[in-house]
Predict the structure.
Amino acid sequence: MGFVKYEQDGFIGVITINRPEALNALNTEVIQDLDAVLDSIDLGTTRVLVVTGAGEKSFVAGADIAAMSTMTVQEAREFSKAGNDVFRKLETLPIPSIAAVNGFALGGGNELAMSCDIRYCSENAMFGQPEVGLGITPGFGGTQRLARLIGTGKAKEMVYAAVNIKADEAYRIGLVNGVCAKEELMPTVMKLAKKIASNAPIAVRNSKESLTDGYLSDLDHAISIEEKYFSECFETEDQKEGMKAFLEKRKVDGFKN
Ligand code: CO8
């Protein structure tokens, strides 16, 4: 797993895409390493995942253009599927994920960030889908997740024009939840991760399932999904302790996994 580092800080898992000499560009090895790291996460002890990039300049500067330059149609299809499978694995992990976008998030980098539940970025971050300038379309979910996040009009402009946008514009259009000074990015994201991790873990996971499953369903079905996850919380000790603590006007005595 040389191209992807994993560190555990209490309940928080931190994934770092670690290929700074190529601005963390995604080749087959990086995708495979990310897949292996995701498989290795202990979901019994990890409540939130943070994803970032190594170095000062880049989150992920896209899929590896040198590696893609000689691909056949079949190889491109397989590469696209490998990336999509891993990004979907990240997106559907039962625990929430936060992208700490510390620089370029271009092409596959923006697509990786969009596969996380929440995105924060540093002031030097740059977002874009430059693919049509390289003669290809986005291939790691960009044509699908971008429109769902920022609306079809803005997504189509970003994809067709392939003009990168800066952090403040990404914030304005809702692509990121917040922008921080460079040195404040990780502290801000870790603080949010710890806040999420302090809440009832099963309730957080059920909320994620409900938000993600429900978003792709019609409203009637989505509401029934919420009813299911809401009611299942009443089987947990956390629900009993959380409500008892409120009624007894005291702090919760630790939530369970
Ligand atoms: N792929 C491979 N190498 C890269 C990439 C990349 N995406 N980005 C940067 N690098 C390498 C550079 O080649 C350079 O290597 P070297 O030092 O050996 O010459 C090193 O990283 C540093 O880069 P620069 O010298 O270019 O750094 P700058 O600060 O001058 O520029 C930029 C930074 C603006 C980020 C510039 O590197 C750039 O434009 N990179 C490419 C960005 C891009 O177009 N990304 C989209 C790629 S396409 C994509 O992601 C499709 C996803 C779906 C794939 C589906 C598969 C079929």
Summary: The radius of gyration is 19 Å.
